[in-house]
């Protein structure tokens, strides 16, 4: 009998943990952390301090997740209008506004404290600024105000590789800024593909995403133009000498493929093509940063 009574309590705890975990948008954060680790390893060379890497990873992750929770708070009313987001914990009333806010601030203080005391002050400050840029500037101001919201707000999601670099070097370097520029340029074609096949949701929630304000065909054309720009930006690390042949070959191949996906989307801005372009964009950024790392270590071994 006692065991039966304990089952609902265990189930409730598990559900609560699941809801709070959902607030962190961990799948999105995981991609950001991958680029952060690449930046860290590129700055470290062969001298890797595992404890320092762990603290950097946890600190940056906590700050990123804090911004994600704030995004849930700010978007809670819009989320109820969208099929994709109406089941989110705050929108659905599973987690209260007060509890979500406290959770966000705990993550922020935890992340800042770890980075400040175990890594360095520069990385701690930049991580907090990135969280503020996404959780407040983008979510509260840019998203409901302009169809260029993701273009301007993309800087927040582009910061992790720079944070990885500063965690080691305690300074900002040109090559690290190029990594930020790459993700910043990649964000519009990545997100606009999602926005095209979620256009009805955004329109219903009165969010002025580009497909809602200018139509799917115009948005697809803009995504293709940004993809062409991305092809140029992604080659800059080779031009400044920080990357070599392996990176160039991989970047050229995945650029060609991404450009083709975006061009096909422009010709036919259907939901099917938008989904294909969006899915490939995720593989694109993972492969590009993996190529940065592979090229770096091959060059270290060779020379």
> Which blocks of ≥5 consecutive residues have pLDDT under 50?
none
SSE class: mainly alpha
Characterize the overall form: globular
- Beta fraction: under 5%
Quick one: CATH class of the largest domain?
Mainly Alpha
CATH architecture type of the largest domain: Orthogonal Bundle
Mean pLDDT: 91
What does this structure look like?
- The protein has 303 residues and is mainly alpha-helical.
- It has two domains: 1-172, Tetracycline Repressor, domain 2; 173-303, Four Helix Bundle (Hemerythrin (Met), subunit A).
- The protein is 82% helix and 0% strand.
- The chain is built from 15 helices and no strands.
- α6 (121-145) packs antiparallel against α8 (160-169), α8 runs antiparallel to α9 (174-197) and α9 (174-197) runs antiparallel to α15 (271-302).
- The N and C termini lie far apart (69 Å).
Layout of strands and helices, then pairs:
Blueprint: H1 2-23, H2 26-44, H3 50-74, H4 76-79, H5 97-119, H6 121-145, H7 149-157, H8 160-169, H9 174-197, H10 199-204, H11 210-214, H12 216-233, H13 236-239, H14 245-267, H15 271-302
Helix pairs in contact: 2-3, 2-8, 2-15, 3-5, 3-6, 3-8, 5-6, 6-7, 6-8, 7-9, 8-9, 9-12, 9-15, 12-14, 14-15
Name a few traits of the molecule.
mainly alpha, Four Helix Bundle (Hemerythrin (Met), subunit A), 303 residues, Tetracycline Repressor, domain 2
What is the compact description of this entry?
By secondary structure, this protein is mainly alpha-helical. The chain is globular. Helix content is 82%, strand content 0%.
